[in-house]
């Protein structure tokens, strides 16, 4: 596969004023070919096609074959009882059929995404490897592992087409039909001159993808690049938009925006969102427009958009993107009805997830508070309704909650990442929580079953890296990335 660079004759900047922020971008499209559509695409994260979401767990700090921080990913398949550790797949760059080889500091598993990229009826798994030395030190790459009736097997690399214009390619990922042509695409965040790449689908087991485009944007710091991606159908037009996170070039502040990547120069259509470091997208009020939860776990002294103990901003979607008639809902632990109290270092908003826990048709919100109680951590669940998110009935969980395995210990960071996904097939979103600091950096994951009244601790399970074959040498950070 060839990897063309940005042509020298491409314009370096195109300027437009978007919501009073001056953005600069250069977009270089590559050749796009059109192919026939295959079968209806499977739902993301269902790698074996059984109707249940599978749980992918990234451990980018894992030691592999003696190589420190080479990285690993565990995939635990869903079952009627939830994630079932006896049916699992361990993936590293030393796994047979995967490209490359485990090397120190590759950080395989730093980011995860899923879509049925080849339209064969099984979801595929995308794994970010930002430390891979491709073309140059830490250029990075993405590994694509194929789904099948028996689970994940076989893989290919998805290199950037801009071989000298990026670094740490794969540090964040998203997948979906972003250009609205019926085929799933891949969005890849990186650092360097090109901070966002859109790889056009379909992506097949053999042959090159259908082209790509890359974005230079001097709104983001090229040093940190695009640091997080999420996506959903915010406008209700049938295709997902992308939420981009980075740091401002001029002061390092968290910057977040909504992009429509169906537009050729998608940086000409950016809508500002409250600044934050993570986000999740889902339809909280069931109005046909996905809404966006943005987590900013920093203090105001560390980030201009931060707050005491951290905060989460909920922005409601509408036909034109953000709903102009509804102000963002700002949540902290001092918000009426939210359990706890805002305290310095709590990191409320370290992780966010949206999914319908109780099966009432409204997406609910899980919020991680990884710094709570000397970084032992906590997770709070709030519920959606026809009028939007409500704090009524909000509940928090820690490792000291009755029925939750383990015990809260300083530095566990329970709630660093959270996900709400239907692992059982009952059409309710189960709560999974990671604590990458558990057991001095080994990390661990918990899963709580969903019920009509919310997550239950009855039958809650927990497992760490050793259970799924990941080495506990060093600090693997099991759960640094999770199914989204």
Automatic annotation (TrEMBL):
InterPro entries reported for this sequence: FG-GAP (IPR013517), Int_alpha_beta-p (IPR013519), Integrin_alpha_N (IPR028994)
Region of interest (Disordered), residue spans: 198-218, 423-484
SUPFAM superfamilies linked to this entry: Integrin alpha N-terminal domain (SSF69318)
Signal peptide region: 1-38
Start-end of Low complexity biased regions: 450-469
Alphabetically ordered keywords of this record: Glycoprotein, Hydrolase, Repeat, Signal
Full protein name: FG-GAP-like repeat-containing protein
Higher taxonomy: Bacteria, Bacillati, Actinomycetota, Actinomycetes, Kitasatosporales
């Amino acid at each position: 596969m060839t990897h063309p660079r940005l042509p020298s004759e491409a314009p370096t900047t195109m300027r437009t004023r978007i919501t009073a922020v001056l953005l600069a971008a250069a977009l270089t499209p590559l050749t796009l070919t059109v192919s026939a559509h295959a079968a209806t695409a499977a739902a993301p994260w269902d790698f074996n096609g059984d109707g249940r979401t599978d749980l992918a767990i990234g451990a980018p700090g894992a030691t592999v074959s003696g190589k420190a921080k080479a990285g690993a990913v565990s995939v635990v398949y869903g079952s009627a009882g939830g994630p079932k550790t006896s049916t699992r797949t361990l993936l590293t760059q030393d796994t047979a059929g995967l490209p490359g080889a485990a090397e120190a500091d590759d950080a395989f598993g730093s980011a995860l995404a899923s879509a049925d990229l080849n339209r064969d009826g099984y979801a595929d798994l995308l794994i970010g490897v930002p430390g891979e030395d491709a073309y140059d030190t830490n250029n990075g790459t993405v590994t694509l592992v194929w789904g099948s009736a028996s689970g994940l097997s076989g893989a290919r690399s998805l290199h950037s087409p801009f071989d000298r214009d990026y670094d740490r390619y794969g540090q964040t990922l998203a997948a979906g039909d972003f250009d609205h042509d019926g085929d799933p695409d891949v969005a890849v965040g990186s650092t360097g001159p090109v901070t966002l790449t859109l790889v056009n689908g379909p992506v097949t087991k053999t042959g090159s993808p259908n082209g790509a485009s890359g974005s230079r944007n001097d709104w983001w710091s090229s040093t940190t690049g695009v640091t997080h991606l999420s996506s959903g159908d915010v406008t209700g037009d049938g295709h997902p938009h992308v939420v981009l996170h980075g740091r401002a070039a001029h002061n390092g502040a968290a910057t977040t925006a909504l992009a429509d990547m169906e537009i050729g120069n998608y940086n000409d259509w950016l809508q500002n969102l409250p600044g934050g470091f993570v986000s999740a997208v889902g339809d909280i009020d069931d109005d046909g427009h996905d809404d966006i939860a943005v987590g900013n776990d920093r203090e105001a002294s560390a980030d201009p958009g931060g707050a005491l103990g951290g905060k989460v901003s909920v922005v409601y979607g509408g036909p034109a993107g953000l709903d102009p008639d509804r102000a963002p809902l700002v949540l902290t632990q001092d918000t009426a009805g939210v359990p706890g109290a805002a305290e310095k270092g709590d990191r409320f908003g370290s992780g966010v997830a949206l999914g319908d826990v109780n099966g009432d048709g409204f997406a609910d919100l899980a919020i991680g508070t990884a710094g709570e109680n000397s970084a032992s951590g906590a997770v709070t669940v709030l519920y959606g309704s026809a009028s939007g998110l409500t704090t009524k009935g909000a509940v928090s969980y820690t490792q000291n909650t009755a029925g939750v395995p383990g015990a809260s210990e300083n530095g566990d960071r329970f709630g660093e990442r959270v996900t709400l996904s239907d692992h059982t097939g009952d059409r309710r979103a189960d709560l999974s929580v990671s604590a990458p600091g558990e057991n001095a950096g080994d990390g661990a994951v918990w899963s709580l079953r969903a019920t009509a009244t919310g997550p239950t601790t009855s039958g809650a399970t927990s497992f760490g890296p050793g259970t799924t074959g990941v080495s506990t040498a060093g600090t693997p950070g099991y759960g640094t990335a999770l199914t989204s």
